[in-house]
Every structure is written in structure tokens, then in C-alpha cells.
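Blackboard transcription, Thursday session:
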Amino acid sequence: MTQLLQNIIDGLGRGSIYALLALGVAVVFGIMHLLNFAHGELITIPGYLTYWAFNHGWNWWTVVPLILVSAVGSSLLIERIAFSRVRGAKDFTMLLTSFGVHFIVSALFLLYVSASVKSIQRPGWAADTVALGSLRIEIFDLLVIGVTIVTLLATTWLLQRTMFGLSLRAAASDFEAARLMGVNSDSVIRGAFALSGFLAGIAGIFWLMRAGSVTPTAGIDPMLKGVLAALIGGLGSLRGAVVGGLVLGLAEVLLRAWLPEGIQNLTTGFVFVLIALLFIFKPGGLLAVPQVERV
Amino acid sequence: MKLRQLVGLFLALAMIATACGSGSDGDSDSTATDTGSSDTADTSADADEPAEPAAPAAGIDLDAIMGADLDNCAAAPSGDAIKVGMVMDFSEAAGFVDIPGSKLVPYVAELANCAGGINGQPVEVRVAEAGTDAALATQELIDWGAHFFVGPPFADATLPMQQTGDGQYAIFAAASTEPTLADADSNTFLVTFDDFGQSEASAEYALSQGLTRAIVFTEGEGVPYSGVNPDAFVAAFTAGGGEIVSTQTYAWFVDTDFSSQVNDIATVADGTEVVFSAAAAFQVTALRAQLEGQGLDGLTYMGTDAMDATGVQFETGGEGMIHTPHTIIAAGGANDMLFQQAIAAGVELDSLGFMPLYVDSMLLGIQGILDCGCTEPSGIAEAVKNISGFEGTSGTITYAGTNGIPDKAVPIAQVQGGENVLLTEIG
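(Written on the board underneath:)
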């Protein structure tokens, strides 16, 4: 029982980061129907800036704002350079564009920075634990879960209680109708990318703290987790993204812990089997949103 | 229309990026080295069969090469060029070693030429990026007249190289420890110990230190590198009387959250174990932090050359970790002097512990030419097979009597004060 509880807490900690990543994916998908495979670059780019900052005497207190600002800036820049050119194009075109952005960003770091792993100093407290009965809970997990809850509440408030949120939800529901009703499409889309970047920035802080390193392809894993979590939860659903992230994190940790020894290295395979089964029975994900066919 | 514009833009950017990347390799103004990528125009190549060198020489004057002053060179060598072909993998998988290696080798060739060449012959180096077609890159270098090859560390590129060269060319997989890559019959050679060598040496060292309990991290039995190294460690450790108290799985180069594994380990470990894996430094330090967070403070961490490749000595949590680097770069030593000189000359170096392997790859091929007194690739390769006691920049290398995996001692190093310190050599 203790180990199960321990695993659940570990899974929630891991899943919270996935939830933040999935939220960022879902926000942009809701507006543009873009499944953004370049979302991981919003961790790679701040990751290299973090590496640079630590080499120039910065610490985590000063690096955190840098990560947030650079993630938002990168998201807006990518939107401006790449996605604004394919607005209104078919979904597949936008998907390919996002792949292109991912590969170009990776190649630029590979060619002009280094192919080597660049180390980032992890905060000393990250792996410290607090005892709760027989449980030993990582401070890192507690922090991630706490920050994720606050971020979700803030995002919900932003979307439900502000004019920007109203515009965003209107555009997500029916982009053309919202535009005809006076919603500024440029502002909404840029706002969605900024929000997506901010969420990726928060996730990136924790991802980089845990990884302690950055490489040109560092964005692939977080991108996959974010996209998978968004798919599990139901593409376009913000609540679904959160649920998807938590489910994915729990599935990874619980399967890893409870699969018989000898097949534990098949954990990722089993996770994908479960996802495939989910899509057989619930093709739209756990919290599917009605799809509006764009013309 | 938009799609076409976009695709055009991406292609243009990709081509610019590739061209710029190649340019960084080809900016040497030395006439003796040609380090452009495979798509760089050949300005110095002679596609005809290389001519026979004047006469075989006894050996290579490594001191003269390392000590050459590029501002004050000897008379330029005038003999027929020794042509070194480098097929390199610039992707992230191998780029961390192949990119700097492909810059250092031409630089050392320049030093050799500055020192009067090898037996009066200039050394030319040409780099071709393997990309997705190592066979094409190899063929290009064969057409150029390469005498032997320095290749990337993975079989997916080395095997096409073997096939393209009909197994006639000596291929040195410079940074590889993959045992299945070496095959003297196909003239493919490692330049360092293989995975069995390094992990068995680690097991031997652990046992010699009285460590008899081990926790092993693997990606799965038989998985190249991430599984083969733990397999070899376990076999040697248990054969020597050690006990494996826990075997854990993980994703190599990916996982940095080991919560599940740490929960398992906490139930069986008593804090006296050695934790062995082939993981990257950033993974082992993450694991260590989580294990220590669970109160397991007295564990000994041992790893492979992956720890050196990923800079364990620069990691905050790397202190005390033990691993098997290919070379120890001692401050003020010959390799250190070479690297400092190269960096001062604008050569971008990285993964320094691996760099002597690239230099030795070139020198071993040249030694083969000198030993056989010929320039036929098959003759050179045959001579390489018989090299014995070659004193290179990475240690003493012997191929005679091996299947292409050199008989070479394995350094056991420990991170002390942010530096790799040699504890002992095994083998």
C-alpha cells in the first residue's frame, strides 16, 4: 500500500509537468487546429539560455524569469516566422510546418552551438524528501503539483473571467464567427501562442531542473509527452489536457513499478498499448470536445 | 501556393544551415588539408590512383608533429600525398564526437605537414558527412583517392562503408566501443577497448575495492551499449564472487526521473553497493540525487565512457564517480598542449577524452602505409592488422593477434575536484 501511494505521488508529480505541456498544446490546437510538434522547442531554446545563464553566474532565482520570457518570446517568434504564413491552410500543412520548425531549430543548435550534452546545475533541494508517515515525498514533486494547480486555476480564471479569455474561447469554438463578431484574429492567435509559450515555460522550468541538461533534440521528449497527453485527454479540451497529462504520468510510473521484472523495460510499449486501447473505445480521448469542421 | 512557399522557405533555410555548417569545416587555408564536406568542390584531389610512396619509414615522429609550430614550419613536404578519408556522422547521435574529431584530425595533419610531412609525404584529410548515405560519402572519398578511412561510431554507417569499399579499406571506427563493429577480416578496427573490456574492468576494479554488492541499470539484455555493458559487468562481477542485489531498467539518454527505481532500490539496498550503468552523466547524477534523497548516501557510482562523453567531471553531482574514459587529459600533458594549441588556432573541440582516438585513427592508418610501403588499400589494411605496440596519443595499441579490437589497457578514473583522476589501469 505504501509503495502504491508512493508511486501515485511520483506519478502525479511527473504527470503535472505533462499536464502543463499538454495545456500549451491544447490552447494552440483549440484556436488553429494546429498539433504543434514544435512545442518542445519552447524548452530547448530556454534550455540553452539557461545553460548560458548559469555559465555567467546566474542562479535559479534569476533563471526562472529568463525561461518564462524566452519561452513566450520563442513561441511568438515561431508563430510570426512560420505559423502566421500557413494560417487557414489545411491541418496537414500546419502539422508539417511544425515538424519543419522542430527540425530547423534542432539543426541550428547542432551546427552552431554543439552536439554535446550541456549540463545545467540542478537545484540542490530538488531530490530532497519530506517524510509523511512511511512515505518519502520529493519536495520537487510537491512543488510541481502545487505550481500546476495554481497555474490551472490561473489559466481557468484567464479563460473564464477576462476579455482575452472570452475571445480565445469564442475563436476556439468558431474562429470565423468570432472574427465576424469583431474579435481581432491576430491578437487572439498571438495571445494563444503567448499563453502556450508561458505554460511551456513553466513546464520547462521543472523539466530542466529534473533533466539537468540540454541537447539540440532536448525538445523531442517533452513535445511527445505534451502531444500524447493532449491526445489522451481529448484534443482541444483544456481540462482533458490536464487529465491526459496526469493519466500519462501515472501510467508510466505505475506500469514501471508493477510490471513483472524482466519486462519492465517494455513500460513505454505498454503505455502505448493502453493509449491505443483508449482510442479504440474513446476515439476522441477521455474528455472529447465536439469537432467543428473548418471550411 | 502557401504550402509551396513554405516548403521552399524550409528547403532554403535547411540548405543555408547545411552550407554554413560545412563552411565551418572547410575554412582551413592549408593546401595540405581539404576538410570540406562531401558536397564541397574538390580543389586538390587527384582522382587517379595514388602513386607509390618513396620508401617505407620506420615510424611516425609523434613528438615532432605535436611540437610543430605553424608559424615556423619546415620545408613543405613534396612527396605523394597520404590521403585520409573521414566519413563522419554530424547528427546528434555521434556529432558530439565526430564534429570535433573531424576538425582536430585536419589540424593534426597540418601540424604533420608543418613538421615536414610523414617520410617526406604531405598528409591530406578530406571529411565527408555521412548524412543518410554513408555509402555515397565513402564512394566520394574512394574516388578522391583515400588510402584508408576514419569512420563514425555506429554500425549503420560503418557497414555501408565496408560494403562500398568491398572490405578492402582499413576503417577505424574512432569513437566506438561496439564489439560487433570490429572485424579484422573486413578490415574494420576499433581504436579503443570495447564494451566488454571497459565493463569487465569496472567489475574487476569494484571487486578489488571490496565492493561485493551491485545495483545494475540496464536498457535490456543484449541491447547495444546500454544493455551490453551491464551484461558484461554482471557476468564479470558475479564470476568474481559479487552479488547483484537489484537490476533496474531505464531509457538510455532519456530518463532523468528515477522515482520508481529508487523506491525499489530503497527496499533492498543497505548503502554499501556499487551502482553500475552505461548511462550518461546527467542521468547518473539525477539518479544519485534521488537515491541520496532517500537516505542512501554511501553508494559507489560506476559507469562507462558515456560518463566521460557527457562531461561527468563538470557535473555538480559527479564528484567521486568512477568511470572508464579513453584518455585522461592531464593539465600540461601532451594531449592537453595539443588541444590548447588547436583551440588557440580556432579549432572548436569538445568531448576531449575521445579526441586522441581520432588522432590515433589517422596515425594508425599512416603507420599501415609506412609498414607496408604501399598505397593499395588492401595492403595498408593488411599491415594495420599486424601493428603491435603502437604508441599513440590515446595509449599503446596492438592489433596483431586480435579481431580488430585493440589490446589496450582500460583506465579507471574517478572525478576528484572536478577533474578525472586516474586510479589505475586494467588489462
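Lecturer's comment: Chain B has two domains: 28-193+332-409, 195-323.
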